[in-house]
Write a structure and sequence with these properties.
single chain; alpha/beta; Rossmann fold; 4 domains; 7-stranded parallel sheet; disordered C terminus
């Protein structure tokens, strides 16, 4: 395979590719770029995420788009805000050496006025989510009558998210002669319906076998009861010290429960589900991209549009119903030339569903035994030895200060000192494991009984409070990870939580000393507040009856 020079791309585009270290085109790029440049036909391209799709359609479209034209010439439609922003960034990187080339992202979750202002500057390419573009069309702020090139990226995702009507309305506003380039990981019935309705004799291009998982991903599974799955996840994380992963769950409730446990056990984890506001979602994703957190617990819907190339693992807390969803999930690792691991947790009753995924996706799965404590310990010691070997020796000045230590250790051989250091660190790892077992018992949500008290705190969703933040706040304030925390309910302006009755006074007094987002915390006994409020309401009703006797 040759370099990008062979396509006859604009020299300024080639200069940008050189800056970006793009040396050779990927398979999908090599198949798509010359076809779009020829502008002969519509295209249906099946390709997994991470195969270089953006450059496959972006480079030729930038090359073909006429900069001095005042009309919008190219539209790229994608399912989510995150993907919209990512594609816009990539296109701007490609066109950075091209004079005054305007590319505008249009997406929901932010004020529309700023985007309307950007549209008035006559961009040549717009990258949009379906809902926001349809809104712009309804307001008559966008004119698509001169569009020449129309890209549907991740078409299967857009249609599964319910954007069919929006896509129909948008395409109806474009000229009949425009070219459509549809990219999809799978060719579902919904995708085929769009192709049959709007595309004319499309050219079929595939970078791989349809629905087949990437060759750079290994697929394994563990068999376990559901109540043991969290322990398996923890063991997987412990044995892989450099793990960078998304844990996929079916429901929001599962994402909350798992992320809460991980945070309690001092892992850098965050939840990503439909309960988050757009700002909260953006913050979580920024933390994940920069590896401030290395574990993301997410639902399939919430994770759409996530574009991270170097994930080491995908963990499926449970199997998806649709085999295509599994292909999407696992396709998020093993990207950009890296190898990845997709892990599935199943029960004995789920073998049939796993077999269905194997059959339809042509993916081979390997059964593995759950990593035990000895394997985890061995992994931790191996990491310790690796880090230990990188430590520099003390300076002459430091050696002088350490004479007493040298004399104490001089009685041991080199092998004995190394053995003792390893034993010491082994003990720390074992203690950590034992503490986890205690905390899983003591920190799990439990039913309310007379050993628990319900407290009210004066911050809520409007203060960006999440269950994870509240748990951290409680543990940090009380300075104990052995505190039992029960049910947590977060309202707009306040939250309630259950805590051990013997820790109630401690929590009320110590949490008053804390500030959260410039707000002094106030914690009160919810039970007493509720009883007092109820009593006052009853008194008010009695008084009303006395003041206004029935006639």
């Amino acid at each position: 395979m040759q370099s990008f020079d062979k396509y006859g791309l604009n020299n300024n585009l080639l200069k940008s590719l050189n800056d970006l270290k793009f040396v050779k085109p990927t398979l999908i790029q090599d198949k798509v770029i010359p076809q779009i440049l020829s502008s002969k036909s519509d295209i249906i391209a099946t390709a997994q995420t991470g195969t270089g799709k953006t450059a496959a359609f972006g480079l030729p479209i930038i090359n073909l788009t006429i900069n001095h034209n005042k009309n919008i010439e190219s539209v790229i439609l994608c399912p989510t805000r995150e993907l919209c922003m990512q594609i816009s960034k990539d296109l701007n990187d490609f066109s950075k050496h091209m004079d005054h080339y305007k590319i505008v992202p249009i997406y929901g979750g932010t004020k529309i006025e700023g985007q309307i202002k950007s549209i008035r500057k006559n961009p040549k390419i717009i990258v949009c989510t379906p809902g926001r573009l349809n809104d712009m069309i309804t307001r008559k702020k966008v004119n698509l009558s001169e569009v020449k090139y129309f890209v549907l990226d991740e078409a299967d995702e857009m249609l599964s998210m319910g954007f069919k009507n929006d896509i129909d309305k948008i395409l109806e506003k474009t000229p009949i002669k425009r070219k459509i380039y549809l990219f999809s990981a799978t060719l579902s019935k919904k995708v085929k319906l769009v192709t049959e309705s709007y595309m004319r004799n499309p050219l079929m291009i595939s970078s791989s076998i349809a629905n087949k998982g990437a060759d750079t991903v290994k697929h394994i599974y563990y068999v376990s009861n559901k109540n043991k799955r969290y322990d398996i996840i923890r063991n997987i994380i412990d044995i892989n010290s450099d793990i960078y992963t998304i844990i996929f769950c079916r429901t929001r409730r599962e994402t909350k429960e798992i992320s809460k446990k991980l945070i309690q056990d001092n892992y850098n984890a965050k939840v990503l589900n439909g309960d988050l506001s757009q700002n909260e979602r953006d913050n979580v994703m920024n933390q994940f991209r920069t590896k401030e957190i290395n574990i993301l617990v997410a639902t399939d819907v919430a994770s759409r549009g996530i574009d991270v190339d170097n994930l080491s693992h995908i963990i499926n807390y449970n199997l998806p119903d649709d085999p295509e969803v599994y292909v999407h999930r696992s396709g998020r690792t093993g990207r950009a030339g890296n190898y990845g691991l997709s892990i599935v947790l199943i029960s004995n009753k789920e073998y049939r569903r796993l077999d269905e995924i194997k059959r339809l996706s042509k993916i081979s799965f390997e059964k593995k035994d759950v990593p035990d404590e000895s394997e985890i310990l061995k992994s931790k010691m191996s990491l310790f030895a690796s880090n230990f070997s990188k430590i520099s020796l003390p300076s002459e000045q430091d050696k002088e200060k350490m004479k007493d230590i040298y004399s104490q250790l001089n009685v041991f051989s080199k092998e004995e000192i190394i053995g003792k250091i390893i034993t010491l660190n082994s003990h720390k790892a074992i203690v950590s494991k034992v503490n986890h077992k205690k905390s899983t018992i003591k920190n799990q949500p439990i039913k309310t009984d007379n050993t628990m008290s319900k407290l009210r705190i004066n911050i809520g969703r409007s203060d960006k409070l999440t269950p994870e933040m509240l748990i951290k706040l409680i543990n940090k304030t009380i300075r104990s990870r052995d505190t039992k925390i029960g049910k947590i309910n977060i309202s707009k302006n306040y939250a309630t939580f259950e805590i051990e009755s013997n820790m109630k006074k401690n929590a009320i007094s110590k949490m008053k000393q804390i500030r959260h987002y410039r707000k002094n915390l106030k914690v009160t006994d919810f039970t007493e507040d509720f009883q007092e409020t109820t009593f006052n309401k009853r008194r008010k009703k009695i008084k009303e009856k006395e003041d206004f006797p029935s006639l």
